[in-house]
Amino acid sequence: MSGHEGSVNEADASTLQHISAKVDALLMLCETDSELRNYSLKFKLEQAVDKTAFEAKREAGEEMLHFRRVLQRMADLALHVAPHILRRVRKYVKSKHTSHNGEVSSEKTNTDTLHANSNSLQRSSSVEEFCDGSEAWLESGAHLSYTAVELLCLILVSHPRLVKYLQMYLFECRVLEYIEDALSISREQEITFFQEGYRTEHIRLLANLTLDNEKVCSTIVSNSAILSAILTGTRFDEENPGMVQWAEFTIRNLCCCISEAREIIRQLTPISISDESKELLAGKVDCHINHAGKVVIGKPSHASTE
Description:
This protein is mostly helical and 306 residues long. It has three domains: 10-97 and 132-194, no CATH class; 196-268, no CATH class; 272-299, no CATH class. Helix content is 63%, strand content 3%. Strands 1-2 form a two-stranded antiparallel ribbon. A hairpin with a 5-residue loop joins strand 1 (286-289) and strand 2 (295-298). The N and C termini lie far apart (67 Å). InterPro entries: ARM-type_fold, Ataxin-10_domain.
Protein backbone atom coordinates (compact mmCIF):
# COMPACT_ATOMS: atom_id res chain seq x y z
CA MET A 1 0.00 0.00 0.00
CA SER A 2 1.12 3.58 -0.55
CA GLY A 3 0.66 4.78 3.00
CA HIS A 4 -2.00 7.29 1.97
CA GLU A 5 -4.77 4.69 1.89
CA GLY A 6 -7.28 4.54 4.70
CA SER A 7 -7.65 6.75 7.71
CA VAL A 8 -6.01 6.89 11.10
CA ASN A 9 -9.52 6.77 12.52
CA GLU A 10 -9.75 3.15 11.36
CA ALA A 11 -7.09 2.16 13.89
CA ASP A 12 -8.27 0.23 16.91
CA ALA A 13 -8.48 2.80 19.71
CA SER A 14 -8.12 0.24 22.50
CA THR A 15 -5.04 -1.28 20.88
CA LEU A 16 -3.47 2.16 20.47
CA GLN A 17 -3.95 2.81 24.18
CA HIS A 18 -2.22 -0.47 24.99
CA ILE A 19 0.61 0.39 22.58
CA SER A 20 1.10 3.78 24.22
CA ALA A 21 1.24 2.17 27.66
CA LYS A 22 3.75 -0.45 26.48
CA VAL A 23 6.01 2.18 24.91
CA ASP A 24 5.94 4.26 28.11
CA ALA A 25 6.81 1.16 30.13
CA LEU A 26 9.67 0.27 27.79
CA LEU A 27 11.15 3.76 27.91
CA MET A 28 11.00 3.76 31.70
CA LEU A 29 12.60 0.32 31.98
CA CYS A 30 15.30 1.32 29.48
CA GLU A 31 16.64 3.67 32.16
CA THR A 32 18.05 0.62 33.96
CA ASP A 33 20.47 -0.20 31.13
CA SER A 34 23.16 2.09 29.73
CA GLU A 35 22.85 1.01 26.08
CA LEU A 36 19.07 1.01 26.14
CA ARG A 37 19.03 4.41 27.83
CA ASN A 38 20.92 5.86 24.87
CA TYR A 39 18.53 4.22 22.43
CA SER A 40 15.45 5.44 24.31
CA LEU A 41 16.83 8.99 24.17
CA LYS A 42 17.32 8.61 20.42
CA PHE A 43 13.74 7.34 20.12
CA LYS A 44 12.32 10.29 22.04
CA LEU A 45 14.26 12.82 19.96
CA GLU A 46 13.17 11.25 16.67
CA GLN A 47 9.56 11.15 17.83
CA ALA A 48 9.66 14.82 18.81
CA VAL A 49 11.33 15.93 15.57
CA ASP A 50 8.93 13.91 13.41
CA LYS A 51 5.90 15.23 15.27
CA THR A 52 7.06 18.83 14.97
CA ALA A 53 7.80 18.48 11.25
CA PHE A 54 4.46 16.80 10.61
CA GLU A 55 2.45 19.46 12.44
CA ALA A 56 4.34 22.27 10.72
CA LYS A 57 3.80 20.96 7.17
CA ARG A 58 0.68 18.87 7.48
CA GLU A 59 -1.00 18.09 4.18
CA ALA A 60 -4.14 16.19 3.28
CA GLY A 61 -3.52 12.45 3.35
CA GLU A 62 -0.26 12.71 5.28
CA GLU A 63 -1.77 11.44 8.52
CA MET A 64 -1.43 7.79 7.53
CA LEU A 65 2.19 8.21 6.49
CA HIS A 66 2.99 9.85 9.80
CA PHE A 67 1.07 7.15 11.69
CA ARG A 68 2.98 4.46 9.82
CA ARG A 69 6.34 6.06 10.63
CA VAL A 70 5.43 6.23 14.32
CA LEU A 71 4.52 2.53 14.38
CA GLN A 72 7.75 1.64 12.57
CA ARG A 73 9.77 3.61 15.09
CA MET A 74 8.03 1.83 17.96
CA ALA A 75 8.72 -1.50 16.29
CA ASP A 76 12.39 -0.52 15.96
CA LEU A 77 12.47 0.23 19.68
CA ALA A 78 11.04 -3.19 20.54
CA LEU A 79 13.38 -4.93 18.10
CA HIS A 80 16.33 -3.22 19.74
CA VAL A 81 15.29 -4.01 23.30
CA ALA A 82 14.32 -7.70 23.02
CA PRO A 83 17.52 -8.96 21.32
CA HIS A 84 19.63 -6.82 23.66
CA ILE A 85 18.15 -8.52 26.73
CA LEU A 86 18.66 -11.94 25.15
CA ARG A 87 22.32 -11.13 24.39
CA ARG A 88 22.85 -9.78 27.88
CA VAL A 89 21.40 -12.91 29.47
CA ARG A 90 23.60 -15.16 27.35
CA LYS A 91 26.67 -13.07 28.10
CA TYR A 92 25.95 -13.31 31.81
CA VAL A 93 25.38 -17.08 31.68
CA LYS A 94 28.61 -17.56 29.72
CA SER A 95 30.64 -15.38 32.07
CA LYS A 96 29.17 -17.18 35.07
CA HIS A 97 30.26 -20.55 33.72
CA THR A 98 33.73 -19.42 32.69
CA SER A 99 34.55 -17.30 35.71
CA HIS A 100 37.24 -18.89 37.90
CA ASN A 101 36.36 -17.07 41.08
CA GLY A 102 32.59 -17.17 40.56
CA GLU A 103 32.31 -13.41 40.53
CA VAL A 104 30.90 -11.44 37.64
CA SER A 105 31.79 -7.81 37.09
CA SER A 106 28.82 -5.52 37.56
CA GLU A 107 27.34 -3.66 34.64
CA LYS A 108 28.02 -0.40 36.45
CA THR A 109 31.77 -1.04 36.41
CA ASN A 110 31.70 -1.87 32.71
CA THR A 111 29.56 1.16 32.00
CA ASP A 112 31.85 3.52 33.90
CA THR A 113 34.82 2.23 31.92
CA LEU A 114 32.93 2.64 28.68
CA HIS A 115 31.95 6.21 29.52
CA ALA A 116 35.52 7.12 30.35
CA ASN A 117 36.66 6.09 26.87
CA SER A 118 33.79 7.27 24.72
CA ASN A 119 31.99 10.39 23.63
CA SER A 120 28.56 9.17 24.64
CA LEU A 121 25.94 11.72 25.67
CA GLN A 122 26.21 13.04 29.20
CA ARG A 123 23.14 12.43 31.28
CA SER A 124 22.02 12.16 34.87
CA SER A 125 19.63 9.55 36.16
CA SER A 126 18.27 8.55 39.53
CA VAL A 127 18.12 4.95 38.33
CA GLU A 128 21.22 2.93 39.18
CA GLU A 129 22.84 0.49 36.78
CA PHE A 130 21.81 -2.96 37.90
CA CYS A 131 24.51 -5.56 38.49
CA ASP A 132 24.31 -8.61 36.23
CA GLY A 133 22.57 -11.44 38.02
CA SER A 134 21.08 -9.25 40.74
CA GLU A 135 17.41 -9.61 41.61
CA ALA A 136 16.71 -6.11 40.29
CA TRP A 137 18.45 -6.86 36.99
CA LEU A 138 16.57 -10.14 36.53
CA GLU A 139 13.22 -8.48 37.13
CA SER A 140 14.00 -5.50 34.89
CA GLY A 141 15.29 -7.68 32.06
CA ALA A 142 12.30 -10.01 32.24
CA HIS A 143 9.85 -7.10 32.01
CA LEU A 144 11.79 -5.47 29.18
CA SER A 145 11.82 -8.63 27.10
CA TYR A 146 8.15 -9.44 27.64
CA THR A 147 6.96 -5.87 27.05
CA ALA A 148 9.00 -5.51 23.86
CA VAL A 149 7.53 -8.66 22.28
CA GLU A 150 4.05 -7.77 23.47
CA LEU A 151 4.46 -4.36 21.81
CA LEU A 152 5.34 -6.00 18.48
CA CYS A 153 2.21 -8.15 18.71
CA LEU A 154 0.04 -5.09 19.32
CA ILE A 155 1.61 -3.05 16.52
CA LEU A 156 0.72 -5.75 13.98
CA VAL A 157 -2.99 -5.54 14.83
CA SER A 158 -3.22 -1.78 15.36
CA HIS A 159 -4.65 -0.90 11.94
CA PRO A 160 -6.44 -3.25 9.50
CA ARG A 161 -4.94 -1.57 6.41
CA LEU A 162 -1.38 -1.74 7.70
CA VAL A 163 -1.21 -5.40 8.72
CA LYS A 164 0.57 -6.65 5.58
CA TYR A 165 2.88 -3.65 5.44
CA LEU A 166 3.91 -4.02 9.09
CA GLN A 167 4.35 -7.77 8.73
CA MET A 168 6.80 -7.21 5.88
CA TYR A 169 8.54 -4.39 7.73
CA LEU A 170 9.25 -6.68 10.69
CA PHE A 171 10.21 -9.48 8.32
CA GLU A 172 12.76 -7.23 6.60
CA CYS A 173 14.03 -6.22 10.04
CA ARG A 174 14.86 -9.92 10.53
CA VAL A 175 12.33 -10.50 13.27
CA LEU A 176 12.22 -14.23 12.47
CA GLU A 177 15.94 -14.52 13.22
CA TYR A 178 15.32 -12.97 16.62
CA ILE A 179 12.35 -15.28 17.30
CA GLU A 180 14.38 -18.35 16.36
CA ASP A 181 17.12 -17.22 18.72
CA ALA A 182 14.67 -16.41 21.51
CA LEU A 183 12.90 -19.77 21.31
CA SER A 184 16.18 -21.70 21.34
CA ILE A 185 17.09 -20.88 24.94
CA SER A 186 17.07 -23.66 27.50
CA ARG A 187 14.18 -24.27 29.85
CA GLU A 188 16.40 -23.34 32.79
CA GLN A 189 17.30 -19.97 31.26
CA GLU A 190 13.68 -19.28 30.37
CA ILE A 191 12.49 -19.84 33.94
CA THR A 192 15.45 -18.08 35.57
CA PHE A 193 15.73 -14.96 33.44
CA PHE A 194 12.34 -14.40 31.83
CA GLN A 195 8.83 -14.06 33.11
CA GLU A 196 5.86 -16.36 32.75
CA GLY A 197 4.45 -16.33 29.24
CA TYR A 198 7.80 -15.77 27.51
CA ARG A 199 7.18 -18.43 24.87
CA THR A 200 3.49 -17.61 24.65
CA GLU A 201 4.23 -14.06 23.49
CA HIS A 202 6.77 -15.21 20.90
CA ILE A 203 4.34 -17.78 19.48
CA ARG A 204 1.64 -15.09 19.51
CA LEU A 205 3.96 -12.88 17.48
CA LEU A 206 4.40 -15.71 14.97
CA ALA A 207 0.63 -16.09 14.73
CA ASN A 208 0.25 -12.40 13.90
CA LEU A 209 3.12 -12.48 11.41
CA THR A 210 1.77 -15.50 9.51
CA LEU A 211 -1.78 -14.22 9.01
CA ASP A 212 -2.39 -14.25 5.22
CA ASN A 213 1.30 -13.70 4.50
CA GLU A 214 2.76 -16.21 2.07
CA LYS A 215 6.31 -14.85 2.28
CA VAL A 216 6.49 -15.16 6.05
CA CYS A 217 4.79 -18.57 6.05
CA SER A 218 7.16 -19.93 3.40
CA THR A 219 10.18 -18.74 5.37
CA ILE A 220 8.92 -20.33 8.59
CA VAL A 221 8.14 -23.66 6.93
CA SER A 222 11.70 -23.79 5.58
CA ASN A 223 13.09 -23.08 9.05
CA SER A 224 13.05 -26.35 11.00
CA ALA A 225 13.92 -24.66 14.31
CA ILE A 226 10.96 -22.26 14.25
CA LEU A 227 8.57 -24.87 12.88
CA SER A 228 9.60 -27.30 15.61
CA ALA A 229 9.05 -24.61 18.26
CA ILE A 230 5.55 -23.96 16.90
CA LEU A 231 4.63 -27.64 16.92
CA THR A 232 6.09 -28.08 20.40
CA GLY A 233 3.97 -25.13 21.48
CA THR A 234 0.83 -27.25 21.07
CA ARG A 235 1.83 -29.09 24.23
CA PHE A 236 0.44 -27.69 27.48
CA ASP A 237 2.99 -25.71 29.48
CA GLU A 238 2.05 -24.27 32.86
CA GLU A 239 4.76 -21.61 32.51
CA ASN A 240 3.19 -20.39 29.27
CA PRO A 241 -0.59 -20.12 29.57
CA GLY A 242 -2.32 -19.60 26.24
CA MET A 243 0.61 -20.89 24.19
CA VAL A 244 -1.32 -23.89 22.87
CA GLN A 245 -4.00 -21.67 21.35
CA TRP A 246 -1.49 -19.33 19.69
CA ALA A 247 0.47 -22.29 18.34
CA GLU A 248 -2.71 -23.72 16.84
CA PHE A 249 -3.52 -20.35 15.26
CA THR A 250 -0.04 -20.25 13.76
CA ILE A 251 -0.36 -23.77 12.35
CA ARG A 252 -3.74 -22.86 10.89
CA ASN A 253 -2.25 -19.76 9.25
CA LEU A 254 0.62 -21.78 7.79
CA CYS A 255 -1.65 -24.49 6.41
CA CYS A 256 -4.17 -22.03 4.99
CA CYS A 257 -1.46 -20.02 3.29
CA ILE A 258 0.84 -22.55 1.63
CA SER A 259 0.43 -26.17 0.57
CA GLU A 260 4.00 -26.99 1.59
CA ALA A 261 3.07 -26.52 5.24
CA ARG A 262 0.16 -28.93 4.90
CA GLU A 263 2.40 -31.56 3.33
CA ILE A 264 5.11 -31.24 5.97
CA ILE A 265 2.66 -31.50 8.86
CA ARG A 266 0.79 -34.37 7.21
CA GLN A 267 4.01 -36.37 6.96
CA LEU A 268 5.01 -35.87 10.59
CA THR A 269 5.08 -38.99 12.75
CA PRO A 270 4.20 -38.82 16.46
CA ILE A 271 6.97 -40.10 18.71
CA SER A 272 5.17 -40.36 22.03
CA ILE A 273 2.06 -39.49 24.00
CA SER A 274 2.63 -36.79 26.58
CA ASP A 275 2.22 -37.50 30.26
CA GLU A 276 -0.45 -34.80 30.41
CA SER A 277 -2.50 -36.58 27.74
CA LYS A 278 -2.09 -39.92 29.48
CA GLU A 279 -3.28 -38.41 32.74
CA LEU A 280 -6.23 -36.72 31.03
CA LEU A 281 -7.32 -39.93 29.29
CA ALA A 282 -6.63 -42.27 32.21
CA GLY A 283 -9.58 -44.55 32.89
CA LYS A 284 -11.43 -43.32 29.81
CA VAL A 285 -9.52 -44.78 26.86
CA ASP A 286 -6.28 -46.61 26.18
CA CYS A 287 -4.00 -44.69 23.87
CA HIS A 288 -0.75 -45.82 22.26
CA ILE A 289 1.33 -45.42 19.10
CA ASN A 290 1.62 -48.46 16.83
CA HIS A 291 4.59 -49.52 14.68
CA ALA A 292 3.30 -47.43 11.78
CA GLY A 293 3.46 -44.30 13.91
CA LYS A 294 -0.31 -44.00 14.19
CA VAL A 295 -2.16 -43.12 17.37
CA VAL A 296 -4.47 -45.97 18.37
CA ILE A 297 -7.32 -45.35 20.79
CA GLY A 298 -9.30 -48.17 22.38
CA LYS A 299 -11.29 -49.13 25.44
CA PRO A 300 -9.50 -49.10 28.80
CA SER A 301 -7.83 -52.43 29.51
CA HIS A 302 -9.51 -52.64 32.91
CA ALA A 303 -13.00 -52.04 31.49
CA SER A 304 -15.44 -54.84 32.21
CA THR A 305 -16.53 -56.95 29.28
CA GLU A 306 -20.18 -57.53 28.58
